[in-house]
C-alpha cells in the first residue's frame, strides 16, 4: 500500500499520534506488524491545532517527504489580545499584559508590518534542534534557548473577525513560518500582548482540508481512503 493520505487532525492529538494510528491501520490491512510499515508526515501540527496533515505511506512516498515539507500553507487563526503565553498557545502559562483595546484600523495597520518577506524568530517551545536537542525539551527543563531569526514570507494576512479580545485571521505563509510567533509579534506591535488560542491548517500546497478524512474514519477494513 503506497500513496498520499490527507488527514484532518483533531485537537489533542500530536502529529505522531496521527502517524501511529494510520500506521496501525495500514499494518492491519496488509497483515503486517506496524514496525514494518512506512508512514511519515510532511510537517507537524501542534497538539492544540487542528487540520490538514499530509501523510505519506510506503517507502516510495516517505523518501519524498522533503518535496512536501517546503510547500506554502494556509491557516485559520484565532489570537487573544491582552495576555501572553510562555508557549504561545493555550497550554502555556498565561500572563495579563494590557487592557488596551485596539481599533480595527490599528489592527489593520499592524498587520501591514508583517506582510511579505520578514525576519521571524521561532519559539523556544518548538521542535527545532538546538545543539542537537529539541528546543522544547530544553525550554521545559528551564534552560535558556537561543534560536536565530530566519526569513519567512507572509503571502496573505487578513482579519476575518474581531471582537475584543479575540481576533480571527487568515494567513497564507511560507514553509517554516510559526503562527504562534506571528501572533506574539503582532501583540508586541499593538502593545497589548497576544497568543494563539486556536489554529487550523486548511491548505498545504495544492492539498486542501476539504479532501481530508477525520482520523477515526480511517479504518483498516476500508482502505479505499488511500489516494494512490
Give a verbal description of the structure:
This protein is of the alpha+beta class. The protein has two domains: 3-70 and 206-225, Pseudouridine synthase; 73-204, Pseudouridine synthase. The chain is 23% helix and 35% strand. The chain has helices at 15-30, 59-62, 65-69, 104-112, 135-140, 179-190, and strands at 3-9, 39-41, 50-57, 73-81, 83-85, 94-96, 116-120, 129-130, 133-134, 150-163, 166-173, 194-204, 207-208, 213-214. The strands form three sheets. Strands 1, 2, 3, 4, 7, 10, 11, 12, 13 and 14 form a ten-stranded mixed beta sheet that branches. Strand 8 (129-130) and strand 9 (133-134) form a beta hairpin. The termini are close together.
What's the topology here?
Layout: E1 3-9, H1 15-30, E2 39-41, E3 50-57, H2 59-62, H3 65-69, E4 73-81, E5 83-85, E6 94-96, H4 104-112, E7 116-120, E8 129-130, E9 133-134, H5 135-140, E10 150-163, E11 166-173, H6 179-190, E12 194-204, E13 207-208, E14 213-214
Parallel strand pairs: 1-14, 3-12
Antiparallel strand pairs: 1-3, 2-3, 4-11, 4-12, 5-6, 7-10, 8-9, 10-11, 12-13
